[in-house]
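Dissemination and training. As part of the outreach component of the grant, students in the summer workshop were shown how a complex can be specified as a set of sequence lines and then modelled as a single object. The example used during the hands-on session is reproduced here so that future cohorts can follow it. Participants entered these lines:
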Amino acid sequence: MKLESKITALKGIGEKRGKKFAELEIENIGDLLNYYPRDYEDQSNFKLLYEADIEEKATFIVKVLSVLEDRRIKRNLSITSFLIEDNSGTGKMSFFNMRYIKNQIKIGEAYLISGKVTKFKGQVQLTNPSFKILSEKNKFGKIYPIYPLKKDISNNEIIKAVEQVVDLKLFEENLPAQLIRKYDLMDKNESIKNIHIPKNKRSLIKARQRLVFEELFFFQLTLFTLRNKDIEMEVKPYKLESEIYNFINNLSFKLTSGQSKVVEEIFKDMTSGKRMNRLLQGDVGSGKTIIAIVAMYLTFLNGFQSTIMVPTEILARQHLENFRNILEPLGVKVELLVGSTSVKNKNRILTGIYNGEIDILIGTHALIEENVEFHNLGLNVTDEQHRFGVRQRQSLNVKEKSAHTLVMTATPIPRTLALVLYGDLDISTIDTMPPNRQKIDTIAINETMLDRALVFIKNEVKKGRQAYVICPLIEESEHFELDSATEVYEYLKENQFSDLNIALLHGKMSNDEKNEVMEKYSEGEIDVIVSTTVVEVGVNVPNATVILIYNAERFGLAQLHQLRGRVGRSSHKSYCILYNTSQSKISWERMKVMTDSTDGFYIANKDLELRGSGDILGVKQSGINTLKISQFPRDLNILKYAQSEAQNIFKNKDSLEEEEKLKLKKHILGNLKIDVSILN
Ligand code: ADP
Ligand code: MG
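and obtained this result:
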């Protein structure tokens, strides 16, 4: 048996099952052993109901006996509770605002549940506990792996396959021996074995540590390698004409010190003779757009074309207007290419781009999908990067390898993490805000204050201002009791806002419909927009002064911060109202972070603390799905060591023994086979 042997070489896996495994991207034994559990069921450490103490966090194995309650208590509060029992007695578990839970929990089945214990008349009660159906008990002694699954393949089936090969020591050690010694790392085969079938908790931790280290070490090494080879590409250096400084001095405002610093960094890149690869971070409203405009104008002065890619059509249209206002008087030709551009227009624009008549192209991802051929593309800007994957960011570059790249994002990322996510980019930060910005007053409310909030909004409208009401995404497949945009819209139109101009905006509308609503809104013909998060990024309507966010607990803090950034864009006092329909303590803690601070970096860090990294930073979205096992902020510490060791090795690569060098090389490319191609 080898790592390359087909999965069908295993007992119990024929052609048909083999296809099912292939759907999980498990085709050979190596894939199988690299398919790590997503979780573990620790059956070694559970309590009996009668032993549990108040305030204690504990895990129980219980049988669910019956549904006790399933009803609405108030407009925005429902309860679903179950009677549970184990060998020591009975208890109760309750779920708030999760009525779909009734379809998930099966009466008569055994579950592993964990949560904080409260007691009522001596009986144990758990509120919103985490739960999972109990798998086969005590199979591996005490800790049982849970694999990510798809339909038609069971956890046990994977375990049975893994068991057949996990002791064969099929891997060669891929980390340098000196690092294994220095950090007392578990060896490769031992850690593979323990990540699947842990001997005990300690060996699971050691195994995970080693695999995380390995993953981050090779990831960093790959980034250093790529950066050195492909990314630092020689290009014709730009000239800094005096016109560019005239342009900056004649803007309707003076650049902030943070903006000026970044402009200089960009100028330095563009005149260096190497291709620029820069990430620009700057909080919502810090003024990133003008930086892009300056860089694009310099590109124009040097005789090159440039593009800016944005995540939504709404934003693309807004940029078009803004760019034309500023640049067309200077003879720069700006055009827009989006999904809804008519065929006739599209052909005209594609021709103009091809023969060089058009200088700047603004677009959505239609830009990448279209076969746009540039006359001479010099700069490629991506705005609000967190909405795009690395894959998309890179694919434009693949076409025009020599074009400078500027990626702009409002999602602040702690520096160490930024190095992982954007290790191939230099980082600039705008650390100042334009002057005279009013602080946005933020409050968090529950359902008892909703009516007052609506009256408040109405009063703002009477003063001539406008408002946003934001609702979570409409997801019909989910049975969450969320106030969907359509429902809230209907309700407000019939009730509190019956005498206002109110409109609905959501992602399922056509682009033309969306544009029409946004246009009317920016011209002040609409007072209140009820919307899903399509307005999240970049939209600029300075007269809007209130934003009310329904089910605020459903949003990431970084996202709430983005949404809040839609207001406070003029000298009018602005407000953000977070309507939290959850009772949970953590949701109120998260609201408090928002009401306490308007600093995007502080908020992002808190969000990390309270939620973990994955979904906020969009590690997946960023295309870095090679990170199979590392998680942030949990593994930041390991990252630091892995990073410095990788750096060390990279610096001293010439003194490495030939054999060691070959081994590392093989794993740099082998380990990261999926993403290497998109990183260059
Ligand atoms: P973001 O960084 O969120 O993309 P924008 O570029 O949209 O921010 O800028 C927000 C607003 O601030 C715009 O109306 C812009 O014209 C204005 N602005 C940008 N820089 C300055 C400045 N230095 N002084 C005053 N206003 C500025
Ligand atoms: Mg912006």
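Residues 201-231 form the longest helix (31 residues). Students were then asked to discuss how this feature might be tested experimentally.
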